[in-house]
């Protein structure tokens, strides 16, 4: 919102506790390299916070109420949950392979449909939503606050968007749907419609941490309308901004277009993991600042595979890859090269600088004086070679 760097502080009673929510995938197809970039970056941010003496509650959703899932289910002649569970499991398997830490909380949209029904009822009673045609819409004029993330007027934001070119039953093209289909006041079971994606993330966050979200994360494409909508709903429902900090990663592109499932120009993770390995993929995706786009390049991936194998050999020789691969997150930064690496991450998450420092540390071992603890710390911060922060209370 401020368009500047700021020190991260929790908005709750403990300024060193961070509630962090990252928008999860819509589970109707296989995860791809673009997904990996987002979840690897936010995993690295989470690791950085843990290694810098914060505690973190990390929340992620699975969008499993969606017309794309319904269409896939019809094509395969199965119920929608078969589709969503299949791709949820595939996503988790790929993230595990990439050494992305499991979230503290996973919630699916289908699991909180009743809660989203209650939120819709409250917004209706507040007078910020209205019924029109078959749907319920949020009255953008009553909520106010649009444009706080993209720093532009709502008219300019909507211009060119599908809301500007399609006819709806709603009062104004700026209004957005929060419930699709028949909404019955008495219960969600009686309602024949379903909550909109616009309502999902706000409801999941509110169910978990109330009005105390610190970091909202996701790709650049989620700023508008998705995160702007969550911001406006929160101001109406809670009376406060949805999150203290909004952090968005740039895209992985293929032939200059955003890699996505909808355009079918994506590269599935499963094949990349088999061909290049998890460490090469992490290095490749962390080798650019999170706000810079990455054009998919197999030659670059192959180069990082060579780097990862060289570094792995160095770490093997140092005895670092044997035994337990956990690092106590609150034991402090061990100094030396690790201190410089941490400084690069603290300063706006410059993972590319941190990665270069790590490769230098490993390449020069043992002649450059880098201690094993420094290399273990670096592996933990960057999520490489299976290293993870130890659980609270662990003495690893």
What does this structure look like?
- The strands form 4 sheets. The protein has a 5-stranded parallel sheet with strand order 3-2-1-8-9, sandwiched between helices. A 4-stranded antiparallel sheet has the order 4-5-6-7. The chain has a 3-stranded mixed sheet with strand order 11-10-12, covered by helices on one side.
- With 396 residues, it is of the alpha/beta class.
- Helix 1 links the parallel strand 1 (17-22) and strand 2 (55-62).
- The model has no long low-confidence stretch (mean pLDDT 90).
- The two termini are 38 Å apart.
- It has helices spanning 33-51, 67-76, 80-97, 113-126, 140-143, 154-158, 197-209, 223-237, 269-276, 278-286, 298-317, 337-346, 351-364, 372-382, and strands at residues 17-22, 55-62, 105-108, 129-132, 135-138, 176-180, 194-195, 213-219, 243-249, 252-254, 257-258, 294-295, 326-327, 388-389.
Neighbour order of strands in the largest sheet: 3-2-1-8-9
* Rg (CA only): 22 Å
Q: Approximately how much helix is present in the residues?
A: 40-55%
- Helix/strand order: EHEHHEHEEHHEEHEHEEEHHEHEHHHE
Show unreliable segments.
none
CATH superfamily of the largest domain: HUPs
Question: What percent of residues are in strands?
Answer: 5-15%
Number of strands: 14
Shape: globular
What's the number of domains?
Answer: 2
By CATH, the topology of the largest domain is: Rossmann fold
N-to-C CA distance: 38 Å
Q: Overall mean pLDDT score?
A: 90
What CATH architecture label of the largest domain applies? 3-Layer(aba) Sandwich
- The CATH class label of the largest domain is Alpha Beta
Structural class: alpha/beta
Helix count from the secondary structure assignment: 14
Give a short account of the largest sheet: 5 strands, parallel
């Amino acid at each position: 919102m401020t368009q500047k760097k700021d020190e991260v502080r929790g908005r709750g009673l403990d300024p060193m506790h961070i509630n962090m929510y990252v928008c999860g995938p819509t589970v109707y197809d296989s995860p791809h390299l673009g997904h990996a970039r987002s979840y690897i970056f936010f995993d690295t941010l989470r690791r950085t916070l843990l290694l810098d003496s914060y505690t973190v509650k990390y929340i992620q959703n699975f969008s499993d109420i969606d017309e794309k899932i319904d269409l896939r289910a019809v094509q395969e002649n199965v119920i929608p949950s078969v589709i969503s569970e299949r791709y949820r499991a595939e996503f988790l398997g790929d993230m595990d392979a990439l050494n992305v830490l499991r979230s503290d909380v996973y919630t699916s949209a289908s699991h909180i449909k009743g809660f989203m029904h209650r939120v819709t009822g409250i917004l209706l009673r507040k007078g910020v939503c209205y019924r029109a045609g078959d749907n319920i819409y949020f009255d953008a004029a009553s909520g106010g606050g649009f444009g706080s993330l993209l720093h532009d007027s709502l008219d300019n934001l909507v211009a060119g968007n599908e809301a500007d070119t399609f006819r709806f039953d709603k009062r104004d093209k700026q209004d957005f749907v929060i419930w699709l289909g028949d909404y019955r006041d008495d219960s969600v079971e009686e309602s024949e419609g379903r909550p909109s994606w616009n309502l999902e993330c706000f409801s999941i966050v509110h169910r978990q941490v109330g009005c105390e979200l610190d970091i909202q994360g996701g790709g650049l494409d989620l700023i508008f309308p998705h995160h702007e909508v969550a911001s406006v709903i929160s101001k109406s429902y809670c009376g406060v901004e949805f999150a203290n900090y909004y952090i968005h990663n740039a895209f992985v592109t293929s032939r200059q277009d955003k890699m996505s499932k909808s355009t079918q120009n994506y590269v599935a993770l499963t094949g990349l993991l088999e061909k290049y390995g998890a460490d090469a993929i992490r290095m490749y995706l962390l080798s650019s600042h999170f706000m810079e786009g990455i054009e998919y390049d197999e030659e670059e991936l192959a180069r990082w595979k060579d780097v990862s194998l060289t570094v792995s050999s160095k770490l093997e020789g140092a005895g670092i890859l044997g035994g337990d691969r956990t690092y106590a997150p609150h034991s402090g930064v061990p100094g030396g090269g690790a201190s410089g690496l941490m400084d690069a991450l603290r300063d706006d998450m410059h993972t590319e600088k941190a990665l270069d420092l790590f490769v230098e540390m490993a390449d020069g071992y043992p002649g450059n004086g880098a201690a094993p603890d420094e290399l273990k710390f670096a592996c933990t911060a960057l999520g490489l070679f299976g290293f993870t922060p130890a659980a609270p209370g662990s003495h690893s």
